[in-house]
Queue: 2 jobs
Job 1
Amino acid sequence: MGGKCDIELIDKKGKRVDGRTPEQLRDVKIEVGVLHGADGSCYLEWGGNKVMAGVYGPREAVPRRVQNARRAIVQCKYNMAAFSVDERKRPGPDRRSREISKVISEALEAVVLTEMFPRASIDVNIEILQAEAGTRCAGLTAAAVAMADAGIPMRDIPVACAAGKAGGHVVMDLGKLEDNFGEADLPIAIAPRTGEILLMQMDGHLTPEEFERAFQLAFDGCIKVGELQKKALMEKYAKAVPEGNGNEAAKEE
Ligand code: UDP
């Protein structure tokens, strides 16, 4: 964020470097239930981001000192693969990945009916296989689908999207160049049914008016991606449910 570049991030006609309009998301593709070994999983592509999320649990929280006698905890591990970025990343956790793991854990935990599973842990692994800006939003969005796939009882399916400022304009869902050379980045996560904010971070500078506009764009992005989450889950689970509502056999008896 805030680096210098000679590239025009948005042209006079309002087109961005990757050809999008200011209100346009990158393409998002969501696949549900892709890992055999996990209780729930999701593979998500968001522009050039490629993300795998696997959910395990609810299961006994270990070590025991992390257990909460009254409710479950959500423990998320966000990891960026060494090969996911242009300049090979040193493997293993760092300050950034710990911060992202923490904010995603808190966002997800806010919607889980945790009181149903005292002393349990819901373990969420997010692997960034390819990164192109916005990986915390892509990771959280994939993790939420994987949690739904695992059958974790939730009040809502969290979803995330960023907006920001690049080339002097407020835009939805920053791409790589916009993230590197833009003026501000505002990732948010919401519970779409209620509009509750589950995560909000900001990097860079925005005026109050620009912030309002960026927030609205990020919120609109969340709603759009939320629809894709639901569609992907319906596609998987509609196949598993018989034609009609499944009550036909009961009525015949
Ligand atoms: N990035 C990178 N190497 C790193 C960390 C990040 O190249 O070690 C890139 C990556 O493309 C990432 C982007 O910088 O998506 C923006 O990172 P940021 O910390 O803003 O988080 P994100 O936007 O991915 O949530």
Job 2
Amino acid sequence: MSASASGGPHAPKVLVFDSGLGGLTVLRELKRARPDLALIYAADDAAFPYGRLDDSALVERVGSVVGRLIADLQPNLVVIACNTASTLALPVLRARFPISFVGTVPAIKPACERSRSKRVSVLATPATVRRDYTQDLIREFAGDCRVTLVGSERLASLAEAALHGEPVADAAIATEIAPCFVDDGARTDTVVLACTHYPLLIERLKHLAPWPVEWIDPAPAIARRASSLLGAPGPAANLAVRALFTSGQAPSPALAHALAAFGVTAFDAALPAV
Ligand code: DGL
């Protein structure tokens, strides 16, 4: 029997938010860890990609869209499944809205702990790469690792295209990841996926890497953090996940098919006036 996300009156309601489809990689882990939740996925695709917005425009955009979503949906918890937004806007969101937020920030600490060659690369949007937040993480946790920051202009858009069923050339992906692979006598052995879109392409990243590395996807850790804030799980409800897109565009058949693989089978109209 299928049920809609609003069908479980006692299921804690969790909003998973991203600029586009990348947050699905976090939603997937949360759904796996907590089948008792009513999950709603919201993509601010009208403003995608966030990686190209300037800082003040991004803070304003995230504040107003997330504010509308909180008012309309009344979630128990919000996951900002976007590094580009979290590394800048989380303090503002926490100050403005009296509910729990879980953010997504570059997993520099675990990467540097695990690296044996002491060469770690952080693959992110250009905006995440230049954030003070990211620089602070490196200062605090890099230890004796050399960290290479790689700001990719196109990889999030390529991941979107792939999920929309459009052809994405190997060469385009290979060009975006090439600067992650440093060989200065020791070779990069760990790459942090510091944009939630990138794990959507993980099999192709592995295939196109010039040598094998460990790819760090923070999604399981984010799901654990959200789960611990929500408290003990209730009985599994396995509710359908609802999604909404600020563009108001209904997903194409190819995208609807891809979304179904993440458990997203219901679509809401866009928020008015976003
Ligand atoms: N998924 C977002 C992140 O984790 C970024 C994509 C974008 O540029 O909008 O950073």
